[in-house]
Amino acid sequence: MRHDGVLTDFEPRHADLFGRHTVNLGHRMHESPLFTDAALARLIEKAPKGSYHVNTMDPTTHDPRTRREGEIVGLSGMEALDAVRRGRIWILMQNPGDIDPAYADMLNDIYAEFEDRVPSLETFKHKMSILISSPKVQVYYHADTPGQTLWQVRGVKKVYLYPNTAPFLPQDRMEKIVLGEAHEISLDYQPWFDEYAEVIDLEPGRMLHWPLNGPHRVVNHDCLNVSFTTEHWTTELRNQYLVNYANGIVRRYAPNARLSPSIEGPAAWAKFGFAAAVKLTGLQKARRKSFDIDFRVDPMAPFSVRNIDAYAKVR
User: Fold this and answer.
1) CA quadruple 78, 82, 88, 94: dihedral, nearest 10
2) What is the mean pLDDT of residues 5-11?
3) Does the pLDDT at position 314 exceed 80?
4) Rg (Cα) of the chain, in Å, rounded?
């Protein structure tokens, strides 16, 4: 793919909006043969055990407690795709470029174009994940830690984007997510939040980028969906992560402390160093949440979900 061939309708104003406001743009990624059934089936078959997640949930309610983690065993890639079509699951393929370099090339093209079009934007630590999801399933209300873009390839999904400030995103909850002590979907959601949301029906050939940590949720239309996310860091985003990390450690011992999220000034610089030092010790890894795998993907089972004895897997 050509270096300048990713986005179709980028205008100069989008450079000023990028990272500060929601940006909804056209792209050509849905035309790529990397997202055909055959290509996705190959990815599923070649994916190492720890490189994907499979989830199911109750699509009739917004209750994160119904979200379950599963596994794919003994299925061909096409059988797994058939299970998604007829089921109530989604498969998240992480770092597909590790399996097929063509996906890594696509990721490089995307960020090369972003950096060309947005003056002073310098990104690093790029990541791609592909999401293959059943009709009508949900991704519950959550917030991500890096810069995030959602690219729609097949099907249509309704995306709800919320402000990245309280009460939609309490500071202490974001800190726990950064520390790995809480799952991204641990944020509290209230139906009235939707009155303050941007609601977008995302169709093939469209993408969304939103401000850092912006809470969001997704509901598929009645069709198979294929999309992918791209993640990135900048110096500013990394510094915000380090401040959240340091604040979260301090809040553990002083829960009522008023801790500034600012990334400017001597106090922020001290937090950068403190967070980096704690991370180097590796002690925080022991506090990270694990999850239980309790179902296996089975195209012949109801909703493609066959229950198994649960076993724990570290995040």
Assistant:
1) 20
2) 95
3) no
4) 20
Q: Which two tokens stand for residue 228?
A: 């992918």
Determine the residue type at 37.
D
- In the block, residue with structure tokens 């909703």: 303
Q: Which residue has the tokens 């995103």?
A: 169
Q: How far is residue 26's CA from residue 185's CA, in Å, rounded to a whole number?
A: 28
DSSP symbols for 98-119: GT-HHHHHHHHHHHHHHHHHST
Task: Write down the pLDDT at residue 2.
Answer: 42
Phi, psi for 140 (deg, rounded to 5): -70, 165
How is 258-285 classified by DSSP, letter by letter? ------SSHHHHHHHHHHHHHHHHTGGG
**What is the C-alpha end-to-end distance of the chain, expressed in Å?**
34
pTM, full prediction:
0.95
Task: Quote the percentage of the chain above a pLDDT of 90.
Answer: 87
Burial class (CB in 10 A: 0-12, 13-18, 19+), 284: middle
Chain length of the chain: 315
Amino acid at site 311 = Y
Where does the chain show beta strands of DSSP type E? 23-26, 52-56, 68-71, 89-94, 124-133, 138-142, 147-154, 157-161, 198-202, 206-209, 216-220, 225-233, 290-297, 305-314
